[in-house]
Design goal:
Layout lengths: L1 E2 L10 H7 L15 H21 L6 E4 L2 H16 L5 E5 L4 H11 L4 E5 L9 H7 L4 E5 L13 H11 L2 E5 L18 E5 L10 E5 L25 H39 L3 E3 L10 E6 L4 H10 L2 E2 L15 H5 L4 H5 L1 E5 L6 H20 L2 H11 L1
Bound molecules: pyridoxal-5'-phosphate.
C-alpha cells in the first residue's frame, strides 16, 4: 500500500504510541485527584501542555486541550462571537476555510451575526487590501486558515495578524494543517487564537487544542468541573494528550529535515505529472505551499473514478470531487480559486509523508498515466475534444 492522504490523517508515530501506553495501563489515575497516581497523570498532561506552548512561543496557561480541530474551531468562533457581541456582530473569514469554520460561521449567521467571506486568487491566497476594506467598526473577529487542507496554500498569516492587531480585532487561525509543518510563533504573527489537531501530525485521533491568548475574553465551551481552567470541563483525555505532546516534540525535532525531504518529493512528483500527463495543472500556490501537498486537476476525468482505480493499485489518495465528501457539489475550495465544476470534479490530492520514497512516487505516476489514459479513452467529451483539435 502507498499512503498519500496525509492531509486526511497521519499514521500515529511508534514513539507516540510508546509514550501513550503507560497511561492506559499503570498510570490510569484521574489528574484531578490528590494521590500520587493522579498527580502523575496531571504532571504528564502539563508536560504535554508545556511542549506545545514552547513550540508556539506561548505560555502553558494559554493552551486548552479539546477533542480535535473541529471542536477548537467551533469553540474559538462561537465563544468569541458571544463574548464580543456587545462590541459588534461582524466576522471576516475566507471562502476556502475547512467546514469546521465555514459551517460555524453559517450557524452564527442564523443567530444574528454577519459574515464576510473573502475571495481568494487563482493560487488560493487572500488579498490583504480586500481584507482591510472588509473591516468595519463592528468587526469583532477575523478567522483565516494558516494553510489550506486541499490545495496546500499558506496564507500571509503574520500580515493578517498585524492588520487585525492594528485595528484591535481578534485574530483566530485554523492551523490544523500547518502546525508541525511550518514554524509558528503566536507573538510574532499576532495570533490571538489557534486551532490544532494531533492526528494531522502523527499523533492520536480525537485530541486537539485551542491556544487562547491571555486576556482574550471567551466563554467556557463545556461547563462542569474545573479542568482546563474551568473553560473546557471533563476528565482530561490523558492518553491522547500525552500522545499529542510526544507528537509535537517529534514534529519540532524533525521539522527541518522532514519538510526538506517532503518538499523534494513534492516537487519531484509535481514535475513528473506536469511533464508527462497532458491537459492537467497544479492547483494551489507553487511556493507558498505546504511541503507535502500536491493537487492537480485533470480535464475530462472524474476524480472519483481516479480514486477507485488508484485504490485497486494500492494507492490511497483524495479528490475534490463530489461523492467522497457526502455532497453533490464539488470542493468549495476549488470553486473559490476559479475552477469550473467539471475541472474541480477532475481533481486529485496527493499528500506525502517523509516515509514516502521516490520509487513509490514513480510507481504512482506510472499508474496514474495509465489510469488517466484509460478514463479519457472512455470519455465522450475527450473524444469530441480530440476530434476538434484534429479538425
Ligand atoms: C482536519 C482538519 C480539521 C478538523 O480536525 P479534526 O481533528 O479532524 O476535527 C480542521 N481544519 C483543517 C484545516 C483540517 O485539515
Amino acid at each position: 500500500m502507498i499512503y498519500l492522504d496525509n492531509a486526511a490523517t497521519t499514521k500515529t508515530a511508534p514513539e507516540v504510541v510508546e509514550a501513550m501506553l503507560p497511561y492506559f495501563t499503570e498510570n490510569y489515575g484521574n489528574p484531578s485527584t490528590i494521590y500520587s497516581l493522579g498527580t502523575a497523570s496531571k504532571k504528564a498532561v502539563n508536560q504535554a501542555r508545556k511542549t506545545i506552548a514552547d513550540a508556539l512561543g506561548a505560555n502553558m496557561e494559554e493552551i486548552y486541550f479539546t477533542a480535535g480541530g473541529s471542536e477548537s474551531d467551533n469553540w474559538a468562533i462561537k465563544a468569541a462571537a458571544e463574548a464580543y457581541a456587545g462590541k459588534g456582530r461582524h466576522i471576516i473569514t475566507t471562502k476556502i476555510e475547512h467546514h469546521a469554520v465555514l459551517h460555524t460561521c453559517q450557524y452564527l449567521e442564523k443567530h444574528g451575526f454577519e459574515v464576510t467571506y473573502l475571495d481568494v486568487d487563482r493560487d488560493g491566497l487572500i488579498d490583504l487590501e480586500q481584507l482591510k476594506a472588509a473591516i468595519r467598526p463592528d468587526t469583532i473577529l477575523i478567522t483565516v486558515m494558516f494553510a489550506n487542507n486541499e490545495i496546500g496554500t499558506i496564507e500571509p498569516i503574520a500580515q493578517i495578524g498585524a492588520i487585525a492587531k492594528e485595528r484591535g480585532i481578534l485574530f483566530h487561525t485554523d492551523a490544523v494543517q500547518a502546525f508541525g509543518q511550518v514554524p509558528i510563533n503566536v507573538d510574532e504573527m499576532h495570533i490571538d487564537m489557534l486551532s490544532s489537531s494531533a492526528h494531522k501530525l502523527n499523533g492520536p485521533k480525537g485530541v486537539g487544542f485551542l491556544y487562547i491568548r491571555k486576556g482574550v475574553k471567551i466563554r467556557s465551551f463545556v461547563h462542569g468541573g474545573a479542568q482546563e481552567r474551568s473553560r473546557r470541563a471533563g476528565t482530561e483525555n490523558v492518553t491522547g494528550i500525552v500522545g499529542f505532546g510526544a507528537a509535537v516534540e517529534r514534529a519540532v525535532r524533525t521539522m527541518e529535515e522532514r519538510t526538506k525531504k517532503e518538499t523534494e518529493l513534492r516537487d519531484y512528483l509535481i514535475h513528473r505529472i506536469e511533464t508527462e500527463i497532458d491537459h492537467c495543472w497544479l492547483n494551489g500556490h507553487r511556493t507558498s505551499r505546504l511541503p507535502n501537498n500536491v493537487n492537480f486537476s485533470f480535464l475530462f476525468i472524474e476524480g472519483e473514478s481516479m480514486l477507485i482505480m488508484l485504490d485497486m493499485k494500492g494507492i490511497c489518495a483524495s479528490s475534490g470531487s463530489a461523492c467522497t465528501s457526502g455532497s453533490l457539489d464539488p470542493s468549495h475550495v476549488l470553486l473559490a480559486i476559479g475552477l469550473k465544476h467539471e475541472e474541480a470534479h477532475g481533481s486529485l490530492r496527493l499528500t506525502l509523508s517523509e516515509e514516502n520514497t521516490k520509487e513509490e512516487l514513480d510507481y504512482v505516476v506510472d499508474q496514474l498515466k495509465q489510469i488517466v489514459e484509460r478514463l479519457r479513452s472512455m470519455s465522450p467529451l475527450y473524444e469530441d475534444f480530440v476530434k476538434k483539435q484534429q479538425a
